[in-house]
Specification:
CATH topology of the largest domain: Jelly Rolls
Number of helices: 2
CATH class of the largest domain: Mainly Beta
Largest sheet: 5 strands, antiparallel
Oligomer: single chain
């Protein structure tokens, strides 16, 4: 019985280790823009309001900035000032998004989309703040994270974009790696049971 329990515990702890490893990884490429460019990102170089997202060196650190002018900068169905990245996600998994954002002058605004859903809509932001959106559900192997920016009189700055897996949604199908570990664990449990039965049978004989 002790060996049976140990095998089950090992299987469960291995699955937990895989999930924890996935959760600790930022899946955004170049989220801090320290490459000095927008590598990993896709940008609209000619939005209706001009002044597209670029990378600037501010206070010895790189940030993404936009000074797009007018409400058209945020119009998803038009020609907005977008900056997006297609993230490698796992269907049925929940993710947390965090980022830093600061803007000077008004009006300014930032709209954040997860896939086609607007998950954050900021207007007239002032001092530097860290923003977070929790439990964003991935429905496929790729999820688009989009930032739409506007700042009529000046510039807005985006930095430290981070997306990490936190858990599988209720009823979600386990990842292939988790399935593999579960199968190995169950095989180990089965082998232990069979060994014990053979030993019991020999003693009985």
């Amino acid at each position: 019985m002790k060996r049976l329990l140990c095998a089950a515990v090992v299987a469960a702890s291995t699955i937990g280790f895989v999930s924890a490893a996935n959760a600790a990884t930022n899946i955004v490429v170049n989220g801090d823009f320290e490459t000095g460019n927008l590598s990993g990102w896709t940008v609209n170089a000619s939005p209706t309001g001009g002044y597209p997202w670029t990378v600037t060196d501010a206070s010895a650190t790189y940030t993404a900035e936009t000074g797009c002018v007018g409400s058209a900068c945020l119009n998803e169905s038009g020609n907005p000032a977008y900056l997006y990245q297609d993230l490698n996600t796992t269907a049925g998994t929940l993710y947390n998004l965090t980022f830093d954002f600061v803007a000077s002058g008004t009006p300014n605004a930032l709209k954040v989309l997860w896939g086609s859903d607007v998950v954050l809509d900021l207007t007239n932001v002032g001092s530097l703040l860290n923003y977070s959106v929790s439990n964003l559900l991935a429905t496929g192997g790729t999820t688009r994270l989009t930032f739409l920016g506007r700042n009529d009189p000046s510039y807005s700055h985006l930095d430290n974009v981070n997306v990490q897996a936190v858990a599988s949604a209720p009823g979600a199908v386990p990842e292939p790696a988790s399935w593999a570990m579960m199968i190995l664990g169950f095989l180990g449990v089965g082998a232990t049971v069979r060994s014990k039965r053979r030993a019991d049978a020999m003693v009985a004989a």
